[in-house]
User: Fold this.
Amino acid sequence: MSAVPSVRQWSRDLAMGAKFAFTGGREGWMRAVLTAVGVGLGVALLLLTTALPSALQARSDREKARTDITFTDVGIPKASDRTLLVAAVDDTYRDKDIRGREVQPEGARAPLPPGVKKIPAPGEMVVSPALADLLKSGSGKLLRERLPYRTIGTIGEPGLVGANELSFYAGADNLAPRIDGSRVTRIDHFGEPLGPPDKLDPVLLLLIIVVFVVLLLPVGVFIAAAVRFGGERRDRRLAALRLVGSDSRMTRRIAAGEALSGSVLGLAFGTVFFLLARQLAGSVEIFGKSVFPSYLNPTPALAALVAVAVPAAAVLVTLLALRGVVIEPLGVVRAAKPARRRLWWRLLLPIGGLAMLYPMIGKGNTSGNFNQYLVIGGVLLLLIGVTALLPWIVETVVARLGSGSVSWQLAIRRLQLSSGTAARMVNGIAVAVAGAIALQMLFAGVEGDYTKDTSNDLQRAQMQIRLPYDVPLDQAREQFARTKGVRQVTAIGSGSLGDRKRDPNTSTSVTVGNCASLREVATLPTCRDGDVFLVKGPDSDLDAAKLGKPGRTLYIDPSYAESFRGRQAAWTVPQGIKAARIRTDATNGLTGGILLTPSALPAGAAQAIEGNAYLRIDQSTPDVYDLVRNSTAKLSPLAHAWTWASTEQDNRYTSIRTGLSVGAACVLFLIGASLLVSQLEQLRERKKLLSVLVAFGTRRRTLSLSVLWQTAIPIALGLLLASVVGVTLGVVLQKMTSVSVRVDWPSLLSMTGIGAGVVLLVTALSLPPLLRLMRPDGLRTE
Amino acid sequence: MSIGHTLLGLLESGPRHGYDLKRAFDEKFGHDRPLHYGQVYSTMSRLLKHGLVEVDGIEAGGGPERKRYAITDAGITDVQQWLATPEKPEPYLQSTLYTKVVLALLTHRDASEILDTQRSEHLRMMRILTDRKRKGDLADQLICDHALFHLEADLRWLELTAARLEKLAEAVTR
Amino acid sequence: MTPAGSLLTAHDLRKAYGPTNALDGAEFSIHPGEVVAVMGPSGSGKSTLLHCLAGIVTPDSGSIVYNGQEMATMNDAQRSALRRSEFGFVFQFGQLVPELTCVENVALPLRLNGTGRKEAERTALSWMERLEVDDLRSKRPGEISGGQGQRVAVARALVTSPRVLFADEPTGALDSFNGERVMDLLTEAARSTNAAVVLVTHEARVAAYSDREIVVRDGKSRDMERIV
Assistant:
């Protein structure tokens, strides 16, 4: 016999272990399936993580390929038979963004947008499949009014960045006079020839990294705990094998086989979970962005690494757990009582994590570049710090707890003897809660800043509509005044006023509106149509005072050397110019310069005036925003409406936060299930003792309470630690993204609440078996 | 062990010649020490004298005269009494007890009753010894322990026999 | 049927576990201060008889009267309370709570009865002294020998000064020397408090500590005193 075991020997031992993993009755199965589900979730998350970079790349490539409007005046090609006029008519419906373009070919060889076979004629459009569905559905009724075009086809996948993207190309005419380089332009090809590689929004990148770390880590902790399920039973089984002649190496191989088979099943589960998630990804939107399932392809090398690393890690954990155990033929000898846990190295982990995160503080605002490795490392160290600190805390606290009632005493003494087991079971919950709290805080912070970000005065107006020059202000005012849910319309046009036709030396702004509208931007003494005002006040424009001398001829919309030619409409300051007092307007800005009532505006100047309507809205009217948008579309497809109110924008975060809560809850319940399994295993081992205690006349309540304390104490400590670490990490993340620091109490409470709920549930579910075990049958062993 | 009671018990199943009695005794109980015919003869004359047996008939002819003995009512009562009375618990009782059990089985009496009675008697003795041991010095304790262990061995034998009565009944009545 | 002066009597007890009749018309009675051994082969129903007498298991039929009170009319909580305050228990093994120290184990029945921790442990310690295991007070059950463990268990059974002590094979896992030590201390302590002892055993030398024995065979009991 050779000293080195043959391959056959090895495979036989591993196969035996695999057999043990799935035999052993209902608990054996439950354990195997729980382990596999845990490993599977981890694998699926890992695969998603490896697929994410390529998915984002694919998205950004598609986005670039369809780029049309580059927001520059320069490089606009001359009209030819190969050019196309494009107008951005992006819109919003309910809380979804719609990418919209009006297109007008200037010749037979005009470029086709990606994914579009034929350029629609005026009155026609091509739409993305998601938009087609929306238009057909009942909830798309208001949108149908806004897009009254005939649908002649759909946009193919190459023209979309996500399966759920709402997008359309509508045919148009008469776009040429509106070319301004920003909203309407002329192109001879789609796509961005060259340009800097797209950078992901650093805050978004941070969120993605942290989400994955936060979800992966508890699953990792869970896997580590899961492969130790039924450890005592396994050790006894191995001891029995030793008795019939296997050596210690063989038993270790058998144990490795058990762990290996569980994790291989987990790999299979994980692949299935991943494929499901990939399909699901087509219908899920994050930040209003969706992807195509085909984008989510894990890099083969990374996927292979996952397939090897996960079973290897499972085997490693098992062998590590067996390190402190000597399996003898007549039983299991645990290595000498483990030394008292030390604090210092456990503290090093979270401190190290904070140290790695510290240099990132404030980066979200300025250069916007996080070092991904430092972020991942820091978050990992902080959260792993929880798993390192918790056993020490549980041991230290439990050792100091005095005795109270009998149930309390029983629980405390049990925890004192095996605080490690207790802490290990709770570690997963603590890490999950800590991570979830931190993430919720980050989201809450980002969300809070979004709300505060707007400087507009939401009391005075909640929507703004930018009007193209050919829409008269009066028409707009009437249109919106007729719209249901609109309480007040302020329609104001603005433009510039100079002392010369070209390159003026002195210039000021000119604001046009009826008396009611002008009163929104300045305090007027009296007002009639035809009046002209010069705004005066401490912060008023000094140039305006120079220019506003009666009789002086000025030019509205003067031309500048490096821009489009202006309208250069001449206007003479009338004798009756009145003084107006400055006042903050709805945008919290100060309007200075000269104010004109509509009939004071010279002919030909109208086109030089950019109109804006500010609406005060009754937000209780259903779909009021879309009613307004529909009115806007009726005025002109090129008019653009947007909301100032933050309520709509909150929704995108709300859905993510809900998703996160659901994810965290799922992880918690998975851990809860494993808690239950080990709890039941432990109870069954104590069947005889429980029967004896019942014979003594111990009340059921006492024993039930002791089971509750036994779970509740470590979990309470775990949740406490998780809250502290979670809030710390949350604050650091908030500082990193430079949002204002605030603790998000509702999510803190809800996460700890879910954790506590898991304890109660586990206890409640272990009560019926406990009561059954407390029957005197346990005494009938002899 | 009482040969007289044993022979009486054997007679309960029917009258026999002296020589038949010896053969039956040897077969059932005398595996290692067969009975001399002289012992049978002397025992039977003693039983005759006490009126526990009677002569059922005499066969004349060659050789020694052959009397046929039958048990009397007094004899049956005597056997009954002997079986019901527990033996004084002392070492090496098993041959007597065994004889009693087999006789009981042969005569269709309740053998377990005999064992239970004996068991109770043993335990009574053990109680006394245990009590003496608790009150006595070390020497007393050691002596009592010796007796206790022997009694315990007997008692175990009694229990084992009780558990195997059915099999034994099959074997002896075959 | 109740013999005069008996503390606990049972009449015509029947109990079936599935198809097997563990008890099939068993009788029992015990006086205060009496030690009664329940003997019989394995599986004869001795332990079931003890469980019924102690109110741990309810018989299918028959009556059990403790101190003039019919146990069948009590509910689970009342029987539990009875076990806590009036009865004491010693089992073969695995009865000490491994997490608790010895003195805490002994004090447990008092604590279950609502006695404060300090007082309970003081009483417990005095009983441990009587059973000569007071030096083990802060050891855990895993750290002491089987004989010591049984003595701790006896101290625990007696700590509430029960009126009936139920002992199910109390020396089953011990050698003869340790077994006798335990029996000596147990019967002595029980006699000193005038407690009745129901002693289930299959060992004659253990049964020899009794005043009287009954034999259970096939679920039927025989009072040997009445035979002799």
